[in-house]
Amino acid sequence: MSLFNTMAISGSAMHAQTVRLNTIASNMANVDSISSNQNETYRSKQPVFETVLQGQKGLPSGGVRVREIVENPQPLVMEYQPNHPMANEEGYIFRPNVNVIEEMANMMAASRNYETNVEVLNTVKQLMLRTIQLGK
Description:
Blueprint: H1 3-29, E1 45-51, E2 64-71, E3 77-80, E4 92-95, H2 100-134
Helix pairs in contact: 1-2
């Protein structure tokens, strides 16, 4: 595998983690949103990654990409607050199914993954520079 392939794989992983961080930010931004019905309530979103296979013998030499962004199937949080201005006829409000602790853990994992891929790119860069210096 060439160093350029390594850079491409690392770059695709960084892009995928950027999408992951953006969906986490969206989930966190909407954690306190309220609605009077289930259809209008924000639902937590998660990216689904897939390996890009390019190469012989099915080896994962192409990187990773975001296949789709799916909504979390967990039920929404329903609270009885009859005096709330957004309450429905039965006195309930609906909150998103965003779990702040899970989102923070996902954010730390995505950040670390991104940092790791930056280090991979830096290492590849250093290897290329040293290879060029060998020819001098």
